[in-house]
From TrEMBL:
One of its GO terms (molecular function) is metal ion binding. Residues 515-578 form the Aconitase A/isopropylmalate dehydratase small subunit swivel domain. Keywords: Iron, Iron-sulfur, Lyase, Metal-binding. Its EC number is 4.2.1.3. SUPFAM superfamilies: Aconitase iron-sulfur domain (SSF53732), LeuD/IlvD-like (SSF52016). It comes from the Archaea. The keyword DNA-binding does not apply. This is Aconitate hydratase.
Length: 646
């Protein structure tokens, strides 16, 4: 057999359907699944609708990390729903405060060589431990829990050779920011990034996780590293050496594309407000006043990072004009830093210590004030994601963050002097009291699921109608994120299990009247530019438009997860044959597409849409036979129900 790279090895070991040729649809047997509360509530309702008594994957976990603020009954109701649901159906439940799903998963459940899918776009973080981990929609997770394969297009595999060694104050975050600078937020679409070379030996598992985490911002299917002695060491310190397995590319393997980064040449980097790919060297933008510094998120909140920040803060004070908050990625990180005593340095500096969870990253608190410059160690800075409409959020490493917090200005951390090289603890604090295992299967029948009034029934789409007809309800530009389609934040997120209520906020920041108009017009079409639906895996960005009657999205191109989510909810993703036709489809333009079911069933690759004054435009429909069947059925749930026997 030919030499395989690592990604090909893991895929071939899980291949249930199709061929490993880039662009071909493949079905993969899923070992493990991960959910978080913002998407997982819906995934659970979807799983329940399939009528299967217990999950059929080897491990499933749901983490309450997004909606940990309880300002009304909604989040509390949802937490109790998730806990009782998890107990009954065979899922581990990670309590609020136990940590961010990706950090906890890396610590407690990552296993090299396994295939994980997760209803969160940063699921690839586990690639830092040699897992193939893919972010998907909640419905894909529900279907995998029912034992069905996960379908996706076989990506191209990009080999990224890391040479050299990071210099002091330069970090894994700078590696992925360099990738974003080179490739942009569209540069990874349809690709897996596989990192190799001598440079990986200077990166610990969480640092590798940082790089894989923000591969999501490249639009990549996933990113991964081999497992090696560094992985083994990490897992041993996690008290689970038995989970380690060596997995690496074959010698002499090849990649579809190749890149190289010399770590020795990198400098501290920062992404300017608006997009994670607006990357510059810190020294080129330094000097600007800073008002807020936030350290945390699934990208940068591991033990070494929080300890490094604590060490830098020792004996120093946060600048009087800066408000600084730190949220450790997990209870384990918090406990291990507390055991060391370094937590004192954080508190004494005047920084605010927040509990472990997503917090400000998802707009749950810490929204910046008007015109504040906010420096964050997070992964995303789409406008408005912070909870403040005209925010100015910069993305950078924790090292740059803490330098800014002390000086009150954007600062190159190399100006702080000697770099504190923090050693690993002999053993992390192993305390799984925040993870509730499922009830034994034999008692599952007897367990009741708690459903508060915030848990509303799951809306379903009807099978595809014969003619798609309606107006263009909104036309948006390039790189519209799922945050822009379905905003988050403390007011909106608690409504995630109440689709009628959350639907009122679709496109809210861009056009507060969208939901009202969509309902008055009985649905219609959305028109988008390039890379429509980039960003998080938020399936409410497809589910809520479906509820409002959106029948199709016509865009120049789509981001992978959102495109899959649209199909899953019975909304056809059309692409312009001629990008210039975008100009013809202004808001209010009528659109009619005839014989839609016939076209889907016949496998037509293009369809004709009739618009204003009988003008015709050609739309591309790039769908696999299975996706066509899903759309005809009115979405994946209808399709699975019609095809699965329990
Ligand atoms: Fe949470 Fe932000 Fe990561 S919302 S899962 S910390 S991207």
């Amino acid at each position: 057999m030919a030499s395989l790279n690592l990604a090909q090895k893991i895929i071939s070991a899980h291949l249930a359907d199709g061929k490993m040729e880039p662009g071909q649809e493949i079905g993969l047997k899923v070992d493990r699944v991960l959910m978080q509360d913002a998407t997982g509530t819906m995934a659970c309702l979807q799983f329940e609708a399939m009528g299967i008594p217990r999950v059929k994957v080897e491990h499933a976990a749901i983490y309450v990390d997004h909606n940990i603020l309880q300002t009304g009954f909604e989040n509390g109701d949802d937490h109790r729903f998730l806990q009782t649901f998890a107990a009954k159906y065979g899922i581990h439940y990670s309590k609020p405060g136990n940590g961010i799903c990706h950090q906890v998963n890396l610590e407690r459940f990552s296993i090299p060589g396994k295939l994980l899918i997760g209803s969160d776009s940063h699921t690839p973080t586990a690639g830092g431990a040699g897992m193939m981990a893919i972010g998907v929609g909640g419905l894909d997770v529900a279907v995998a829990m029912a034992g069905a394969p996960f379908y996706t297009k076989m990506p191209k595999i990009v080999g990224v050779k890391l040479t050299g060694r990071l210099r002091p104050w330069v970090t894994a975050k700078d590696v992925i920011l360099e990738m974003l600078r080179r490739l942009t937020v569209k540069g990874g679409v349809g690709k897996i990034f596989e990192y190799y070379g001598e440079g990986i030996k200077s990166l610990g598992v969480p640092q590798r996780g940082t790089i894989c985490n923000m591969g999501a911002e490249l639009g990549a299917t996933t990113s991964l590293f081999e497992s090696d002695e560094i992985t083994q060491d990490y897992m041993t310190r996690q008290g689970r050496p038995q989970d380690y397995k060596r997995i690496a590319a074959d010698p002499g393997c090849s990649y579809d594309e190749n890149m190289e980064i010399n770590l020795s040449e990198l400098e501290p980097m920062i992404a300017l407000p608006g997009s994670p790919d607006a990357v510059h060297k810190v020294r080129d933008v330094q000097g600007q006043d800073v008002h807020q510094v936030l350290i945390g998120s699934c990208t940068n909140s591991s033990y070494i990072e929080i300890m490094t920040v604590a060490h830098v803060l020792k004996g120093k004070k946060v600048h009087p004009n800066v408000t600084m908050a730190i949220n450790p990625g997990s209870k384990q990180v918090l406990e291990t830093v507390a055991r060391d005593g370094s937590i004192y340095n954080i508190i004494a500096s005047g920084a605010r210590l927040l509990e472990s969870g997503c917090q400000g990253c998802i707009g749950m608190g810490s929204a910046p004030g008007t015109d504040w410059v906010s420096i964050r160690s997070f992964n995303r800075n789409w406008p408005g994601r912070s909870g403040t409409k005209d925010d100015k959020v910069y993305l950078t490493s924790p090292e740059v963050c803490v330098a800014c917090a002390i000086t009150g200005k954007i600062t190159d951390p190399r100006d702080l002097g000697e770099y504190p090289n923090i050693p690993w603890p002999d053993k992390f604090v192993i305390d799984d009291s925040g993870i509730v295992p499922p009830a034994p299967a034999q008692y599952a029948d007897t367990l009741e699921i708690s459903r508060g009034p915030n848990i509303r029934p799951l809306p379903l789409r009807q099978p595809m109608e014969a003619i798609l007809q309606g107006e263009v309800l909104i036309r948006v530009g390039d790189n519209i994120s799922t945050d822009a389609i379905m905003p988050a934040g403390a007011k909106i997120l608690p409504l995630r299990s109440n689709v009628p209520a959350i639907s009122e906020y679709v496109f809210y920041w861009l056009d507060p009247d969208f939901a009202k108009r969509a309902k008055e017009k009985h649905g219609g079409f959305i028109v988008g530019g390039e890379n429509y639906g980039q960003g998080s895996s938020r399936e409410h960005a497809a589910l809520a438009p479906m509820y409002l009657g959106v029948k199709g999205v016509i865009a120049k191109s789509f981001a992978r997860i959102h495109r899959a989510n649209l199909i899953n909810f019975g909304i056809i993703p059309f692409e312009f044959q001629n990008a210039s036709d975008f100009d013809l489809l202004a808001q209010g333009t009528p659109v009619t597409i005839e014989n839609i079911v016939g076209n889907l069933k016949q496998g037509s690759k293009t369809m004709e849409a009739t618009t204003d004054k009988d003008k015709k435009i050609t739309l591309k429909v790039d769908l696999t036979p299975r996706q066509r069947d899903v759309l005809v059925a009115g979405g994946l749930l209808n399709y699975i129900r019609s095809t699965t026997t329990q």
